[in-house]
Amino acid sequence: MGTVSLKKRFNRIYSRVIRFIRGEHSGDALRNVSISILPSLAIYLLGVPASTAIGIGVGSLLTTLTDPPGNRKDKLSSALLCIPTFFVASFLTAYLFPFHWPLVILLGLAGFTFTLYGLFGPRYAAIGNMTLILMSFVIGLAPKHPLAVGLQITTGAAIYYLFSLLQAYIRPYRSLKHAMANGFQGLSQFLLIRAQSYDPNIPLDITYSRVGKIHGQISEQQEQIRSLLFREKKIIGHQWPKSNYWLSQVYGLIDLHELIIALDHDYDAIRKNLANTGSLPVIRRAIKLLALEIDSFSQPHIRFRYAQQLYYNTIKLNERLTELKNIQQQQTGPAGPILQSIITNMESILEVLRRIQVAFYQNQEIQDKIDTAEYQQFINRPLGSLGEIKNKLHLKNPLFRFALRMALLFSVGALIGILFLDFKYTYWILLTIAIVARPAFSMTKTRNIERIVGTFSGILIGISCLAFFESLPFLLSLSAIGLFGFFLFNRSNYMVSVIFITLGVVIALNLFEGNINLILGSRMAFTLVGAFLTIAGYFLIPVRQSSSLVHLAKEVASYNQHYFQIINQRLSDNLQSSFDIRLARKKAQTAMALFSDSINQMKKEPEHKWIDWSHIHHFQALSYRVNSHLVGLSISISKKNPEVLHNDIYVRIDELKPLLTDLDQIAEHISGSKK
User: How many other CB atoms sit within 10 Å of the CB of residue 480?
Assistant: First the structure.
């Protein structure tokens, strides 16, 4: 028994490792390391001075982090903004480097301006943040020829985007493919957490907390998928042979999310009513089998290899459903309708999975589809006018406050650098600020801990490598591995990425500059100074979640009310298009995900102990319950069964009305308590 369990655990770990290696970040890491090193090395071997090759390499290296997954249009827009921004920032920094006070003013203005790039979306926020890191690096290079430095950095940025755009045009749907895989995997994990809600041994507040955390991740994944797909005109316009394939996958993924949310009900009542029926363990086993089936779609290349295993899993799942139906038929009280609802939901999930399965083999026309012109309403639109930008520039806007904080921190960091001119690596203070500082306290604190622990661990590993190995090619290889590891784990595990990059930096600086004690002491000391400043900056110009929580609570109540109205309208008007109901559902569930994320952030703020969480937790649980009932109603309506519509739907609508009223009242109470 122990050997079998150990083998299963090994297989799970092996599967996770292989999936991680095959992920988009692995290919990106290899590409980024190659573009950061090989062009600069080739330029150096052609006889170009080492300083020029290093400048180009730094430009390429930093540009890699401005290019998150996206389509061709995303990468082109990034290139058009990033390249000139990098040139101006590097040139001005190098030009003012000898003049201390003008440099301090420049860095303060840069901290404010480039942080506000985030107004236009995450992609532009990455460019702004990396520009601040670039300016820190330029100070570390101690430049003597400003124009040369600016041109070197710009050349490196242009080289990177040349290869990135080339890859995007050769494989235009690479990011979409990986996003879809992550979407199925995320929903599988979401469903496994759902299974815990049917376990009386796990407190409900813990399950709701876990659901809230992963719900935010799922919402982000689905937002990325919508953004990648619905901006591809060839796909949504059915101009590509595989258009129906991709659209079927996305429709299926969104419908699965809807059905999994619909498993949410009043779990306290479910546990009490089903406690003596023997159905709870069966429900958990059935949900785990469903999660396994969903997860298989995240790896289509091996799904067919394990077709036999999946076939047996389907048999087991049908057996569990039959077992639940037998239990349900024996119930006379409230347990019967509850079990019927759960069984119906699971069967609906299986129906969607069969539809997705068909899409793997056939380019089947979608029956219930959204018109091409309507897709744009499902994606977040960037700010489009000066008026919209101006409306964001006020102290109540979290990003604006954060921009002010970054201006202050960069100014103070630069002043400290001036006071300690005898120290060579003071620019690491600015690097730490740019890398670690985040609007929310919890994110800043977590990044600080991860950076300090990662830096210390990387230094220890670097010292060990330098002590035991003397071979120059081997040490250079270790430095390259450190760079690769940084790119590989930068998105998934920041602390591990810091360990790798610290290892690479320690070895590289020791090989090229020597004086390892100064390098290690300065890196640790100035990293700690930067980390301290980021924490102090939060208390000076805080960005608290309580204000956004009030706004999000109102949005949750408002969007669920709107969702309810759309369902009523569709019921009375017998509308055929699914556009309005899908859009209303998307807005409601996005608001709930943001609300849950805000709660998680608030719980990590210093003042969380003085907050009354009872109403907030009750509101969160009620919102999930209301939304699950709304989803269940929309599913029932889509089946268009007249008998069901007349006998059941209107009763459920009447039951929902007081719950929606409660949701509005609690939202108002939260608003009043935060004033």
Answer: 16
pTM: 0.82
CATH code for the domain defined by 545-673: 1.20.120
Q: What is the pLDDT of residues 130-174, one digit of tens each?
A: 999 999 989 888 888 999 999 999 999 999 999 999 988 888 888
Helix runs in 275-334, H state only:
280-296, 300-303, 307-329
Token output for 321: 């459903």
Supply 374's token pair: 């309507």
Residue 370 has pLDDT above 60, yes or no: no
Contact 484, 29 (CB under 8 A): yes
Q: Which residues contact 331 (CB under 8 A, 6 or more apart)?
A: 277, 339
In sequence order, what are the residues at sequence separation of 6 or more whose Cβ sits closer than 8 angstroms to the Cβ of residue 452?
527, 528, 531
CB atoms within 10 A of CB 327: 19
pLDDT at 97 over 60: yes
Measure CA 285 to chain center. 29
Q: Which residues contact 240 (CB under 8 A, 6 or more apart)?
A: 234
CB-based burial label for 235 (10 Å; 0-12, 13-18, 19+)? buried
Q: How far apart are CA 590 and CA 620, in angstroms?
A: 13
Spatial distance between the Cα atoms of 365 and 252, rounded to a whole number of angstroms: 13
In CATH, which of 1.20.58, 1.10.287, 1.25.40, 3.30.70 is domain 174-367? 1.20.58
pLDDT in tens, 500-549: 888 888 888 777 766 666 667 777 788 888 889 999 998 899 887 777 78
Q: Give residue 651's Cα distance to chain centre.
A: 39
**314 contact partners, CB below 8 Å, separation of at least 6:** 293
Q: Where in the chain is the domain with CATH 1.20.58?
A: 174-367
Listed in order, the ranges of the chain carrying CATH 1.20.120 are 545-673
Structure tokens at 634: 């929309």
